[in-house]
Write a structure and sequence with these properties.
- The structure is a single chain.
- The chain is of the alpha/beta class.
- The strands form four sheets. The chain has an eight-stranded mixed β-sheet with strand order 1-2-4-3-5-9-7-8, with helices on both faces.
- The longest helix is centred in the middle third of the chain and has 20 residues.
- The radius of gyration is 25 Å and the shape is elongated.
């Protein structure tokens, strides 16, 4: 089968080479669309959605308001398991039907924000009126902005039955899955956009660059056959990638082409709709994915231009396979070549640390950060969003300051910094804070009788200090966050109540 695929691609490449000696003008137009949409995004950004953890109740008023605009047809297409309305928005009069669905996984909301930005663009296009008119004249769009509202309510991947909707295309065991299948069968779109988020720790191949956007034209069989339907999706992705390379060079990857027989993307491709998967990954300094939201806005509009003008036919199929593969070589923090003493013996090693976001009803953002050491040893082929060059330095477990503080108010920023400089990452407290947000804690907090082990170990929290050659603390690491004591306290730095 693989030989057949290679032969097919070789023949296609030869034919395309004969038909074109250079990239057509239409290709540059797609790039311009992406650049213009990216530059103008602020004019269309939906102000009601400013972070990732919005809920169904936050988008309903926006959709009901959209219903008042004659340009759109807004309807409740069905309900979730817990009875929340799932909306379908139709707009455009063009011959090509395009269906876009987002937040199939409740905690994957980046593209949902971008869709609401697109709604604003379609209502009030401003300087991009020509692009808006072209898209709506060539395409009819069908958009489901939040397919899994129950999962979004608690910001979890699965629905309220703990079913992964993207593994339910065959059995259709959940109401949301049955609705998506019903819409696909009734609309019969030529193109479909399956909009997701992926881990921020994915990289573009083996490079240090995060895979900020990853594409996939899902395979509809194990042989990864390329027919006309899948080929259209591949060619469109080539055009989308060309535009994104102007915006985030080197930050685009390709998701694995391995066939997943239960997945909606794979099956919708098989049912005759050209499916494009967009995965929103990570980008340094963008924890709430607002920059990536902007990239989604730009690349989706570029794709709608390519589809509406049918200019996908002018892209080389083989270029799809040149997009680097999604790999996983990133950590939130990597400490390299640092010395560590265990049982009286010194070892030089690397340490990889990741941070997680458990839900919290008391935290301002609805979650807090908890770190874990996830690699110890040779990390020469891995990278960190943050990195510490530990050459000549020593990693030392953080100490516990045993004299209790009465309240959190006594732990001033200056006092916390001095404690870090003295090697302490945790303090005891007589009265534990009950109202404080985790991000308000300058160090870890322990009860007067509590016990904790900050020694280096896999899957244990990351609480250390890094000392320079003179034995002075250069870096404090509290709950996986780094404080360079020669600089200012970083914006994101806090401990936990242990």
């Amino acid at each position: 089968m693989r030989k057949t695929l290679i032969l097919f691609l070789t023949l296609m490449t030869l034919l395309e080479t004969q038909c074109q000696s250079s990239k057509p003008a239409e290709t540059s137009r797609a790039v311009e669309v992406a650049k213009q949409a990216f530059e103008q995004h602020a004019a269309y950004k939906e102000a009601a959605l400013q972070d990732r953890r919005f809920k169904h109740k936050d988008i309903v008023p926006l959709l009901e308001q959209l219903r008042q605009n004659r340009l759109f047809q807004v309807q409740v297409a069905g309900q979730s398991i817990e009875g929340r309305d799932i909306y379908l928005v139709k707009v455009g009069t063009g011959k090509t039907k395009v269906m876009l669905w987002s937040q199939m996984h409740g905690d994957e909301s980046t593209a949902t924000m971008a869709l609401f930005d697109i709604f604003n663009f379609l209502q009030n296009p401003g300087e991009l009126k020509g692009l808006r008119d072209e898209i709506l004249a060539n395409n009819t769009l069908y958009m489901v902005p939040m397919l899994n509202p129950d999962g979004a309510e608690v910001f979890q991947r699965r629905n309220s039955l703990d079913i992964d909707l993207n593994r339910d295309a065959l059995m259709l065991q959940s109401a949301e899955s049955r609705l998506l299948k019903k819409l696909r069968d009734e609309i019969k779109p030529e193109f479909g956009f399956n909009l997701h988020d992926q881990s921020r720790l994915y990289t573009v191949g083996t490079t240090a660059k995060p895979a900020t956007i990853s594409f996939l034209a899902p395979a509809f069989d194990n042989a990864q056959t390329v027919n006309e339907v899948r080929g259209r999706a591949m060619r469109t992705i080539v055009g989308m990638n060309e535009g994104l390379q102007q915006l985030v060079p080197g930050h685009v990857a390709k998701y694995s082409d391995a066939h997943e027989p239960r997945a909606f993307g794979d099956n919708i491709q098989k049912w005759g709709t050209s499916v494009i998967l967009i995965e929103s990954g990570g980008y340094k300094g963008d924890p709430e994915k607002q920059y990536i939201r902007r990239l989604n806005f730009a690349t989706i509009l570029s794709a709608l231009h390519i589809i509406g003008t049918e200019s996908y036919a002018q892209y080389n199929l083989a270029d799809y396979f040149k997009i680097p593969q999604n790999e996983r070589y990133l950590y939130d923090l990597v400490i390299k070549d640092v010395w560590y003493k265990e049982n009286g013996k010194d070892a030089q090693l690397d340490v990889g640390i990741n941070r997680y976001e458990p839900a919290s009803t008391t935290a301002k953002k609805g979650f807090y950060h908890r770190s874990a050491v996830e690699e110890i040893g040779d990390m020469s082929v891995h990278y960190g969003y943050e990195e510490i060059d530990g050459q000549g330095m020593t990693l030392v477990p953080g100490k516990v300051y045993d004299k209790p503080f009465a309240t959190i108010n006594e732990l001033t920023p200056a006092r916390a910094k001095q404690l870090l400089a003295d090697g302490y990452t945790t303090v005891r407290m007589q009265n534990l804070p009950t109202q404080a947000d985790p991000e308000d804690l300058p160090l870890n907090i322990l009860t007067t009788t509590g016990r904790v082990n900050h020694g280096l170990a896999l899957f244990r929290g990351a609480n250390f200090v890094v000392k320079d050659k003179e034995g002075q603390v250069r870096y404090g690491i509290v709950n996986g966050f780094v404080y360079d004591l020669q600089g200012e306290k970083p914006q994101l730095f806090h401990g936990l109540i242990l």
